Amino acid sequence: MIDFSPPESPLRISYDGDFDIALAMAAPPPDAPSDAAIKKELKRTVREISRLQRRLHAHRHYAVLLVFQAMDAAGKDSTLRAVMTGVNPAGFRINAFEAPSNEEARHDFLWRTTRRLPEKGRIGIFNRSYYEEVLIVRVHPDYLERQKLPRRLPIMERCEERYQSIRDHEAHLARNGTVILKFWLNISKEEQARRFLRRIDRPDKNWKFSRADIEERRHWDDYMAAYEDAINATARPWAPWYAIPADSKPWMRLLVAQLVRDQLATLDLTHPELPEEERAELQDYRAHLATEL
């Protein structure tokens, strides 16, 4: 059905529905390289992504969709900057999804992200996504009131319906050439507290802190349950989830970059070859231009 495979990795979540979020690593392993070595390897990996992205753009048979989900302060923004810096900005687009607008709330829950899907030859990045509709609305079911849904359902029944919609949506995208990688950036509750404290203590980071951060933190266990269920319900070979340790930002960025690089490397990305008559025509143009030098 689908002619591409996700990168092999111990971070890839099983498709069997047995993911236990309590067992997922948040910190790097004891034998992880030094930060200096990680940064050096990240630069090399980003150069490879840049090279492969140029081939993706020339080939134009695939689109790539990278989905990032995480608790607040996990480092989504900085990871996207680190991984995509050095890649041709014309070849990718980052979309950050916040609370739905009134217009978005009047459509089905997949509408606003579907409008932002990448075209063939490009990388699309979702900083938060349609998964918010089975995460935040599960923790805060009252948010669904704005969506004017025709049937009132218990929240878990609503989520089960939406899991099915997401699975169907991602399978449809994959069948039509969109390569999907989904990253859950796993920050520990303790590390989140440290990062919130830095936002409070550093004047240049005060703007990043809000009372809502603390309010949502009180629902930590509810969010973990929502993530575990959503990931188990939607991890598929054509739309895999990767649980990325996020307590070390350098380590997290490298892991994400390597997985993006490895996925691009699995694709049969070749530069288009012109027909023989068009190649002959190019030689005529070449001969003409050469006379002007």
Detail the topology: elements first, then pairings.
Elements: H1 35-59, E1 63-70, H2 76-84, E2 92-96, H3 102-105, H4 111-114, E3 123-127, H5 132-139, H6 155-175, E4 178-186, H7 189-201, H8 211-217, H9 220-234, E5 241-245, H10 249-266, H11 276-290
Parallel strand pairs: 1-3, 1-4, 2-3, 4-5
Helix pairs in contact: 1-10, 2-10, 5-6, 5-9
Helix tally equals 11
Amount of helix: 40-55%
Low-pLDDT segments, ≥5 res: none
Mean pLDDT: 94
The major sheet is characterized as:
5 strands, parallel
**Arrangement of strands in the largest sheet:** 2-3-1-4-5
Anisotropy-based shape: globular
The beta-strand count equals: 5
Please compute the radius of gyration using only Cα atoms: 21 Å
Report the portion of residues in β strands.
5-15%
End-to-end separation: 53 Å
Q: Which structural class do the helices and strands define?
A: alpha/beta
Could you spell the SSE succession in H and E letters? HEHEHHEHHEHHHEHH
Structure description:
This protein is α/β, with parallel strands linked by helices. 47% of the residues lie in helices and 11% in strands. The protein has helices at 35-59, 76-84, 102-105, 111-114, 132-139, 155-175, 189-201, 211-217, 220-234, 249-266, 276-290, and strands spanning 63-70, 92-96, 123-127, 178-186, 241-245. Helix 1 (35-59) runs parallel beside helix 10 (249-266) and helix 5 (132-139) runs antiparallel to helix 9. It is globular and about 75 Å long.
